[in-house]
Amino acid sequence: MSETSGPAVFVIAQAETSGGSSFGDSTTPPANAHGVEIATPPGEAHGSNFPPFDAQTFPSQLIWLAIAFGLLYLLMSRIALPRIATILEERHDRIADDLEEAGKHKAESEAAAKAYEQALASARGKAQTIATETRDKLSAEAEAGRKSLEAQLSEKLAAAERQIGDTKTAAMANVRGIAADTAGAIVNELIGTAPDAKAVEAEVDKALKS
Q: What is the dihedral angle through the alpha carbons of 44, 46, 51, 53, rounded to the nearest 10 degrees?
């Protein structure tokens, strides 16, 4: 203990006698064990090395690094990561719900489209049936009208034929009388005597029949 304390006491005494200032004055250059002043390097004139680069502070730096890392790990594991996991889970659930809802809407739209196609096919079938029934009804009505018109025309034709026959018969009767009178007058003019009316009518009838 005496070997190490002797030079230190000597340095302190030398510093007090040489400069008259207190120990630790930054203006007094350091001295060695024999009282010889040691020149301070230019970079160390106003302080020591940068603390992070000082090898003497490495153990404390490592300790504080371990403490900071542990606190950061606890903070992340207890607070940040659970919140992030909760947010991700909620987002996953929301996406799953959205996908499920989209699937439901897709199924509903497909069902609606299928129902629309079925309704459209049914409407087309009904329209075709109505068109067929209407065409058949119109054809039947047209056929009935045609038959009714043919019947009316047949009746009118028969009536016209009967009228023509009656007119012909009346005309033929008039022709017979006119022919008989004409034949009697001609015979009377030729022979000067009126012929027998029945004989003249018989000759006229024979001529008309031929």
A: -30
Phi, psi of 23 (to 5 degrees): -70, 135
**Residue range(s) defining the domain that contains residue 159:** 80-166
Is the CB of residue 176 less than 8 Å from the CB of residue 204?
Answer: yes
Residue spans of alpha helices (H) in the chain? 2-19, 58-75, 81-191, 197-209
Cβ-based burial of 207 (10 A; exposed 0-12, middle 13-18, buried ≥19): exposed
8 and 31 part of one domain: yes
Would 73 be classed as within a structural domain? no
pTM of this prediction exceeds 0.70: no
Q: Note the pLDDT tens digit of each residue in 124-156.
A: 999 999 999 999 999 999 998 888 988 888 888
Say if 47 falls within a structural domain.
no
pLDDT of res. 72: 93
Torsion of CA 79, 82, 88, 94, to 10 degrees: -100
Mean pLDDT value of segment 9-36: 44
Residue ranges of alpha helices (H) inside 20-80 are 58-75
Residue 34's nearest CA partner among 14, 17, 54, 59 is: 14
Domain identity same for 152 and 191 = no
Work out the pLDDT band at 48, boundaries 50, 70, 90. low
Q: Residue 210: its pLDDT value, please?
A: 65
Residue 1 tokens read as 């203990």
Is 155 found in the same domain as 92? yes
